Amino acid sequence: MGFRSVLLLLVSGLLLAAVASGAPAAPAPDVLRPAGKGLQAAIDAARPGDVIELPRGTWHGPVVIDKALTLRGKGGVIEGGGKGTVIRVEAAHVLLDGLVVRGSGKNLSGPDACIYLTPKATGTRVEHTRLSDCGFGIWVHETPRARLIGNRIAGSFEGSRSDRGNGIQLFNAQHLRVLDNVITGGRDGIYVSATEYSLIARNHIKRTRYGVHYMFAYNNTLRGNVSNDNFGGFALMESHHIKAIDNVAMDNTEHGILFRDVEYCTITGNRIEHNGQGMFFFSSTQNRIENNRLLHNEVGAKIWAGSLRNKVEGNVFVGNRQQVQYVGNQDLVWGTADRGNFWGDYLGWDQNGDGIGDRPYRVDSFTTHLLGSYPSAALLMQSPALELLSHLAEKLPILRVPTVIDERPLTRRPAP
Question: Which residue has the higher pLDDT, 329 or 118?
């Protein structure tokens, strides 16, 4: 037998011996239950990977989790007693699942929260957890790849909104997923500050200031959320490259979607209904606003302070008390060479049947300008004097003011 054959035989034998003996298996995680010494003692005694289950009863915080483990609710309540943060996570890959957490402190500059994820909590997941009586519900602080899924957060209704914490606070983090949460009350439902490459989807938020509020946040996606009965539905401020897709903003007092100093955002497929102002543009440029439905708002869209060079097409404006309110020093043209928007009050013709009106849609510029400059003129709405001035504005250039013009209005309403 040659040397090569002997070598192969030896290697094969070693491999068979290794398989037969088996490599040592990792120890199975222990399932622990806190006893008389309390929850923090159980956390301290646990090994990384262990599961701590909370049976019925009240378990007192605050607690600090400094190792990768699972804390799972089995009917128990973690009570903070109104002081500080209830659960503070200081380790990566922690899972908080099915908990009931309540009673943090109310020091918003602390900040006090029911659950606080530190920069060390990379990849931590908070799932199917109920939070109430919190300063902030969940605060994610410089924590990459956190996941907040299926939680229910009940915020405060006491005092002014500015004196309450946010349901979910995201600060200076990347690659987050905030999905399927229900948030009621507090200041903002989800506040997003200096956060990038993150997805907020399928959340339902009501009775807050802003449902979702972006500040200095870039390259994020907002998809399929419902924001109703708030001061404002969705607020995009000082941000760029946000995709807001297929959201619903309904019955909000002031705005459905607010754009303030935002650029390069894509706003498409959203339903914006029964709000004070469907969309409000303030000093925002280079955005794409396409295929949205603005229905039965007091004002369909308000444009202010140099909001130019936005691509606005394929949107539906129907049933708004005032379609557009625009204040500017030059006409603002919407639509492209291919298509404009659908206007429920457009009275033009489509003689060749191509779905494009034969004459431009022009907003009632005189009335819009008058109300924008002098809000008290609303008392004259539908008065003979204002009607006469509106008709004269169409005939006399001296009375004509800058307005929004859709040069290719749609005559067939696009499907949702």
Answer: 118
